[in-house]
Amino acid sequence: MRSFFRSCSLLISIILIISSLGAEAARVSEPGDWLIMGPANTSASPYNLCYYKVAKINNDADRYATTIELDVVGDVNYHYRQGAYLIRINKYEGTLARFDGLEIRCISGNPLAATFYVFNNALWVKSNYQWGAIYYRSEDHTAVSPLNTAPFDQTITAPVGFVASTDTYGLNCDFDNSKFYQLSYEDVQGNTTNMGKMGIGTVPGYTLHTVSQGNTTKASAYLWGENYGVAVGTLNATAANYSFAVLNNANTDGSGATGGGKPLLYVRGDGNVGIGTNIPQAKLAVKGDIFAQKVKVTQSGWADFVFHPDYELPSLQEVECFIKANKHLPEIPSEKEVEKDGLDVGEMNKKLLQKIEELTLYIIDLKKESVVQRKELEMLKEKTEKEAKKSTGK
User: Fold this and answer.
1) Which among 249, 303, 314, 389 has most CB atoms closer than 10 A?
2) Exposure letters 368-392 (e unless 16+ CB within 10 A, then b)
3) Which residues neighbour 315 within 8 Å (Cβ) at sequence distance 6 or greater?
């Protein structure tokens, strides 16, 4: 009986040992404790920054699904010299001499704390600040890992021949299609920089693309500034391009809806502005009516030259002959010309004033002639009356 109890005790001990080993194995498969990759710089003057090969392809037959965390610690006397990064590496076992995908993101701290150098089959890193160290830990979801081993090929010589590099923005590397995408990042002051397109309420088709569905009581966007409003700038916009456009009857992607888009306001690259038209041929082109309380047109030169002594006023006979031949006043555009070319309001007012001033001169001349004729009539009347008195003997 005693031997039976000893056997049971031994069996229980073996079971406990196996269980503890299993628990230890389970712990190892999870993200491990932080380990040091190496110092940020050498220990001797001139204290060069160190470069480390974080990951590499160990065998073309390897399959990777790995997440690596890096904690780049610069001089701890400066809060903004630290940055934590998350790196994701994927590779299919049939892919030769390169990864399939690699992504780098700063998840905390200063995205300028480190510089990454991406190769088709490796990833290097260096701290951008001295007097610290680089720490790492990783988690693998496959049997093998691309994580390099100590001393991580430590060197003070910068890598060359890399296909992409970043010391600010995140980086998404699509090796399958040879595409490298810059990812948004947030700096230590909370400023967010978006390196790609940004969509609000939609998948973006433009650098900034917002869609507000069903906004029956509110504006789709509101931009407010205490002292300045919205500024829109272009670099080399021409007459063929617009600097600002407002459309009605448009789809969410910017294309015209059924019946075509309707331009409401269009500012062309040459400064021409169209209201109701997207082909403004002048500084302001309006397709439709204009209502205003006051319109001021600046004009170079005016019609007062009519009153200058050397102005040759056409005779009424000359004007009459011109009207009979042309069916409009001299120097005034014809109906066909107005229909074809439109009307220059400032120039037309100048011409009309010229005609009014000419009419004024004609009236003055007629007044003078009238006064002379009246005097002549009075003199003739007086003479006639005298002769009549003489004939009657009175």
Assistant:
1) 303
2) eeeeeeeeeeeeeeeeeeeeeeeee
3) none
